[in-house]
């Protein structure tokens, strides 16, 4: 009974022993990296830059996409009325349109208001002063209701407005925003391709770094094999070294992205002020930081595993 209890106690201690062993290997691998600070710093810097490029571009495209979505929601359908439509008739038409279920708001821009706005933005005061009459018609700015399928709703409203007898021309102000969104989607696809290419580059960088470490410790590995060490035991410190490289590179990437956003905030705010708008850039959220750290660690571990699995087979005991 006493022997059985001892065996049971030892079985319960196995997870603790395993975790202690893993922690010792991880700390030992970190110590090896710190004992060569300059090579480690250079490798981590390269990894950090390679991780920061796709991460920063992704955040940039996400901000631009959000801005384009906001523009599209704020844009309206502009219905240019016929020249013989008076401002009173335009107001009555606006009242009828406000009762439509898919219309949130209708604003009336009278012909005089349209002329004043055109004069303010065009700078053609002399030319406009010489005209015998106001050539601009009244305009209705129609804002659709928010819906899951806003594009289809806008198209239906555009066709409905175009069929009205008082309407001369309907302009869909969101068309340019939709084209802009298409360009943003293209940029997102390019960022995805760049991320895949940089991930492969990271695997090669870490693999080459671990390969050099294996060559430097060839004699030590051969002695370990002579005394019966398994490949899993020999492989473990190198795997932790690759994971540390990836984690440290992820930390550098997070720092670079945060610094880049802070540097861009001032110029972006100045550009937004020219358009009388506010557009603060996203701060890097905790999920984004965590994704960069986990991604860097996994790439480091995978690159190390590929390199160690390949080169250990080439090392034969003395």
From TrEMBL:
The chain crosses the membrane at residues 41-61, 190-210, 243-264, 284-308. InterPro entries: ABC3_permease_C (IPR003838), FtsX (IPR004513), FtsX_ECD (IPR040690), FtsX_proteobact-type (IPR047590). Residues 193-312 form the ABC3 transporter permease C-terminal domain. Its main location: membrane. Keywords: Cell cycle, Cell division, Cell inner membrane, Cell membrane, Membrane, Transmembrane, Transmembrane helix. It is a multi-pass membrane protein. It is found in: Cell inner membrane. The keyword Ligase does not apply. Residues 77-152 form the FtsX extracellular domain. The keyword Metal-binding does not apply. Coiled coil: none annotated. Part of the ABC transporter FtsEX involved in cellular division. Belongs to the ABC-4 integral membrane protein family. FtsX subfamily. Forms a membrane-associated complex with FtsE. This is Cell division protein FtsX.
